[in-house]
Design goal:
Blueprint lengths: L3 H12 L5 H9 L20 E2 L5 E2 L2 H11 L6 E5 L5 H7 L4 E6 L2 H13 L5 E5 L12 E6 L8 H5 L1 E11 L6 E9 L2 E10 L13
Parallel strand pairs: 3-4, 3-6, 4-5, 6-7
Antiparallel strand pairs: 1-2, 7-8, 8-9
C-alpha cells in the first residue's frame, strides 16, 4: 500500500480507536476508489460517507472499521451481510472470514458490486437479490451477521438465523431519529443486546426493489 491517502486514512482510524490489526489490514487491501461513484473518486479516502445510486451510501470508513471490529471475526466463519450496496463492506469482510453471503434489494447495485468483486479477484462472496428483513434462511445459521441499514429493532428473522454463540451487528433506530450500532449476542438462553456507537444510516426497507 503506497497511496499516501490510504496510509493517512489508516492512521486516522488507529487514532480513533480501531486497534484490530486484521481489520486495519483488510481496509488497507481494499481499494475504496473502486466502490465510489467516479465523480467522488478524489474523496475515496476521506473519512466520510459518500452517496451511491438509489439514494444509498457507502459508509464512512470509521463506521465500516468499527462495525467490522465489533464482529470479532474468525477466519473460518460464515458471515451474512444485509445490504450489499457498493460492495465495499463485503469486500472488507471477505478478507477476514471464510465466506460472505450478502443480500441486496436493488438488482442493479448488486450487479455492479459483483463486477467489482470479479475485477478485484474476490472469490468468497456469494450474492443474492432479496429482502434483507428475511435474510438467507437456506444458508443459516451464521456465526456473524452484519446489517448495513437501520431497522427500528433487530429483525426477528435475522436473530433466528444467528448461530448459538453468534454475534449480529445492526444499526437500530428510525430514519431521522437517534440510531445506535447494537451488538446482539445469541446464547442457549436467548439474546442479549448492547449499544455501541451513535450512527446515521439509511433505513432498512422491506421487500425487493422493483425495476431497479
Amino acid at each position: 500500500m503506497d497511496d499516501p491517502r490510504r496510509i493517512r486514512l489508516i492512521m486516522e482510524l488507529r487514532r480513533a480507536g480501531i486497534i484490530d490489526t486484521g481489520v486495519l489490514s483488510a481496509l488497507e487491501r481494499v481499494p475504496r476508489e473502486e466502490f465510489v461513484l467516479s465523480n467522488f473518486g478524489d474523496q475515496a479516502y476521506e473519512n466520510t460517507a459518500l452517496p451511491i445510486e438509489h439514494g444509498q451510501t457507502i459508509s464512512q470508513p470509521y463506521v465500516v472499521a468499527f462495525m467490522t471490529q465489533a464482529l470479532a471475526l474468525g477466519p473460518r466463519m460464515r458471515v451474512l451481510e444485509i445490504g450489499t450496496g457498493s460492495g465495499y463492506q463485503a469486500a472488507v469482510l471477505s478478507g477476514l472470514c471464510r465466506r460472505v453471503y450478502t443480500v441486496e434489494r436493488y438488482r442493479s447495485l448488486l450487479r455492479q458490486a459483483e463486477g467489482r468483486f470479479r475485477k478485484l479477484g474476490i472469490g468468497n462472496i456469494v450474492t443474492r437479490v432479496g429482502d434483507g428483513y428475511l435474510g438467507w434462511p437456506e444458508q443459516s445459521p451464521f456465526e456473524r451477521i452484519l446489517v448495513t441499514a437501520a431497522a427500528p429493532e433487530a429483525p426477528r428473522a435475522l436473530k433466528e438465523q444467528l448461530a448459538v454463540g453468534g454475534v449480529m451487528i445492526v444499526p437500530v433506530g428510525r430514519s431521522g431519529a437517534n440510531q445506535d450500532v447494537v451488538r446482539v449476542r445469541r446464547s442457549e438462553e436467548g439474546y442479549s443486546c448492547d449499544r455501541l456507537l451513535p450512527v446515521r444510516f439509511v433505513p432498512l426497507v422491506e421487500g425487493i426493489a422493483e425495476g431497479a
